[in-house]
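README: folding subset

This subset contains proteins for which both the sequence and a predicted structure token string are available. Records are stored as plain text. Below is the entry for Phospholipid/glycerol acyltransferase domain-containing protein (216 residues), shown exactly as it appears on disk.
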Amino acid sequence: MVVMFPFVYFTDKYRRNALSFVNDVWATVSTSLFCPVEVVGREHLPSVETPAVYVANHASYLDIYSLFHLRRPFKFISKVSNFIIPIIGWSMYMTGHIALKRTDRKSQMKTLKDCRELLQNDCSVLFFPEGTRSADGTMADFKKGAFSVAAKENALVVPVTLVNCSKVMKNGREWAMRSVPGGIKVVVHPPIRSTDANELCEKSFNTIKETLVQYS
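--- output ---
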């Protein structure tokens, strides 16, 4: 990735497809060694060229690895401290993911602006609308930021339900992985579009929540 980075940055500044491909392979191989990841509803995914806002529930560090199985070059938001983690953080920086200072209002506003710029340049973004990982796997209410961005850009919103990530790797016990029946499922729902952020938020929340109940 280090060798590829300068060329990719100047020829594909926003999507960085080549670097995203490396991430996808890395995540697919590393998770497959420990736990199967099945993508359900892959037919609902927009094309690689279509900019979209992906939104998912968040309960484990495995969430991102599982979402890379979608094989879409989206950019996700992560706290600043994650970008200094050796290897993983450096990879995130080179691939163009977005750093956020959670308690800094200016950083929050810049993050939303950066996401709009990415969408305007045909690059997809990924949000975890809960804002942080769930402590016990129970889904919290969604914040409106992701849906405001999608509404203003009239972008597709793709709800994604992550099933069993928190059971395989519990929050706070990242050193211990467990095998669970059926493995991890990444359930892709039909995209929705609206200029009403509240409508997008409500529909996405209900869709993801109902699917979690269905698989529980």
